[in-house]
Specification:
The protein is built from 1 helix and 25 strands. With about 350 residues, the protein is mainly β.
């Protein structure tokens, strides 16, 4: 299995070289890999967590406030990992643990967990699902799920949760202020709630960004909903329209999708700041999606024909198109075609 990385590398990427990477994808390499094979790579903002086939965990990036660090935790029986800027959740054989990122020892000493949970011998659910519930990236680190929910897969956003059931239904809950729950409003929901707009459509994949959600149906259709500030839904973004017009100025701010501009927009233009219902997104040439993944404000979809499409926020080269532009429609990553 060959892994590729692209995007911001200034915090200590595993790729060859440590410069900020704003170009095409590059193979993941590191001198510390001595016969081990990477089986999983999960990025946070300032570091990336890697799991190897021998159960070791490698953190690469800004660790415990130290940039350009690569910290090994050898032979943990590590099976999966969920990194965030404050906490690191690790799934090991027979247990799940949460570590405080600020207190990690750069020498690779396994820290005492802030929280831990023993798991049953037969546990085989996909992380963040665990026995009788799921883990969280903030205290209390665990939430119980009712026994009636037959879960298949779960994804965690910054403030919301997306659940795929065994019969292909999608449920969401958490904060809804950016429409990321898909219930047609911006209200918070405290308990799992069915996304009614997808009724009758069997879903096979789900992913959660910071404040947006993506799902793929069994037939390969792609649905997106939530915040579209950087075009991460693949829908027309007002922010991008301003960027493309040099005579316009948009006042910066993390919640600027509805912010004032220094020019008049075409009144007939239709921009989507928040999409509170699932929207069907067309890939070029009606290509069918197979897998999806989300960053905080960008989206990636792998197709059944083996192509990769990305869109959304591209400031750090994370879209893989060799530039730092934002995109509000899916674009194929050309690097992989000759390969």
């Amino acid at each position: 299995m060959l892994w590729f990385g692209f995007g911001f590398g200034g915090f200590g990427s595993l790729r060859s070289g440590t410069e900020a990477a704003l170009s095409a994808p590059q193979p993941v390499q590191h001198h510390g890999l001595d016969g081990e094979t990477l089986t999983k790579a999960v990025p946070s903002w300032s570091y990336t967590a890697y799991v190897t086939d021998d159960g070791s965990l490698l953190l690469s990036g800004c660790i415990a406030g130290c940039p350009q660090q690569c910290v090994w935790f050898h032979h943990l029986d590590c099976q999966d990992v969920l990194p965030s800027e404050k906490y690191l959740l690790v799934l090991m054989k027979g247990r799940a643990e949460c570590w405080d990122v600020a207190h990690l020892d750069c020498a690779g000493t396994v820290p005492e967990p802030l929280w831990k949970m023993e798991l049953s011998d037969g546990h085989n659910a996909a992380f963040p699902l665990v026995d009788k519930g799921h883990v969280l990236l903030q205290p209390p680190f665990f939430r119980e799920l009712g026994p009636s929910l037959q879960t298949q897969k779960m994804a965690l956003g910054n403030e919301h949760v997306v659940l795929l059931t065994c019969d292909g239904k999608v449920l969401t809950w958490g904060a809804g202020r950016h429409g990321q729950l898909g219930h047609g409003d911006v209200e918070d929901v405290s308990a799992p709630r069915l996304v009614e707009a997808l009724h009758g459509v069997t879903m096979s994949e789900v992913a959660a960004g910071g404040w947006h959600t993506v799902a793929v149906s069994e037939s390969g259709d792609l649905y997106c909903w939530g915040w579209n500030e950087s075009g991460q839904l693949g829908l027309p973004s007002k922010t991008l329209q301003v960027e493309h017009r040099p005579d316009c100025t948009i006042f910066s701010g993390f919640s600027s999708e509805d912010g004032p501009t220094g020019c008049d927009m075409d009144e007939d233009s239709e921009f989507i700041g928040i999409q509170a219902f699932p929207a069907l997104i067309d890939l070029p040439q009606e290509i069918e999606a197979a897998k999806v993944s989300c960053g905080s404000r960008h989206t990636a979809a792998a197709t059944r024909s083996g192509e990769l499409f990305t869109w959304g926020w591209g400031k750090y080269g994370q879209l893989g198109h060799g530039d730092t532009k934002n995109l509000d429609q899916p674009k194929r990553v050309e690097f992989f075609l000759p390969e």
